[in-house]
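Problem 12. The chain below contains 171 residues. Write out its predicted structure in token notation.
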Amino acid sequence: KLGKPQEAILQCIEAAQKNPRFSNTYTNWGNALVCQGKIEEALSKYSQALALNPHDSDALNNWGFILYKQGKHQEAIAKYAKAVYLNPNCWLAYTNWGILLANRGRYEEAYSKFAKAVEINPNYILAYSSWGDSLLCQGNYQQAISKYAKIIELDPKCVQTYNNWGYALYH
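Solution.
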């Protein structure tokens, strides 16, 4: 991460001037605006992306994430559901949907979303981490450890995972 959202926005403006019909430009522009905390402007860019390409699962996923953060959970679920309907390989939407469900105490539903995310992208640590943490919350320590073991296999330097694994072991 370079942490230069304003520079990213300038590149998006340039891209939009060169090809105003390229929907990914507006999705990326929206992401840069989110980094700046300009949520309403970001939603406007996601809306532009979807107007150009109604199948833009990234824009739907990102919009869903904003709705989730705003506490609009049913609306967020609708965006995630549409994203994975349009793009069954949208592992980010499955992961975000799972996180939302787990945070609402709907663990069994969340597990199926995390499972789908790692089926699509078996190297996505956040899906394993969220799945493991959800299992830990439910007291499923051995299953949580299996998710943490996968994370360590992927990233042996992931300190938080060792911590969570240790927590599971002494419970």
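Discussion. Residues 91 and 119 are 9 Å apart (CA to CA). Students who got a different answer should revisit the alignment rule from Section 12.3.
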